[in-house]
Every structure is written in structure tokens, then in C-alpha cells.
Amino acid sequence: MEKQHNSETIGQGATTAKPAKASSQAADFVKQTADRAGAMASDVKDTISEAASEIGDTVAQRAEKTQHEALKKVAEGTERTVEKGKSFTQDLLLSLSRAFEAGSRSLESDGMASTASYARATGKGLESAADEIDGLDSANVAHRVETFVRERPFQTVGLFALAGFTLATVVKASMRKSED
What we know:
Number of strands: 2
Strand order of the largest sheet: 1-2
Strand content: 5-15%
């Protein structure tokens, strides 16, 4: 850096040299350096803000994707469970219907015609219920379960906890019974 000097004449042609604007140059240099540092800090802040925003967006997108995948799995599992439950319930109702029909014939042969008619009506009602179950739309049931899970996640967790507790109690009781 080159120094500039002001010359001042002091009588008889003699001059003295003084540093010209040294303090003002130093102040300008400090100001420029501070301005550059401020601009760099602003650039760093902007870069960090953009990175944080991108990370936040990525996290939000992953959370949403995970939520959709979980709900899809719940819906698929519900449909499978409903189909199995439909089949089991329908078979059970048809078996009970046949049992009531057989029982009504036995009652009729024993001379209890009025009681036999009640048993026959019950059998036909069970058969009708089995037909209704056959027409049940499992996709609709799955949609209703999915909606329930979305709207009431804490109740859903509570229901699963209760079901787990009940299942554990039943399994323990059956294990104790088999040991006796």
C-alpha cells in the first residue's frame, strides 16, 4: 500500500511531510472490510436458511409419504381382515342355521310344532344374516376404518392397547388351563 503525503511549506522553502488522510484511509479500510464481512454473513445466512428450508421440506414430504404408506397398509390389512371375518362369520351363521333347522325337525317329530316353528324361523333369520354378510363391501368397511384412524389416532392406539391386553389375558388363562 502506497502512502500519500501532504507537503506543507514552513517558511524559506522548507517543507515537512505529514501522512495524508492516514486515519481516514484506515477508517475507510475498516468500513470496507466490515461491509464485506456483513455481505458474507448475509450470504451465509441466506445459504443456511435455504438449506434449512429444503431440509424442512424434505422432512415434511417424508412424513407425509410415511403417513400415506401407513394408511395404505392399514386399509389393505383391514380389507384382508374383513374378508376373513366375513367368511368366518358367514360360515358360522350358516352352520347355526342348519343346526336350528335340524333342531326344528327334531322338535316337530317330538310333537312340539310351535317351538319347532320358532327354531325354524331363527334358522331362516341366521341364513338371511349370512346372505347380508356376503353382500358386505369390504372396501367400504376399510374406508370407514381408515377414516376412523385418521380422525381419532389416540383412540385407535387405545383400542389396540386394549385388544393386546385382552389377547394377553386370554392367552395366559388358556396356558394356565392347559398346565392344570
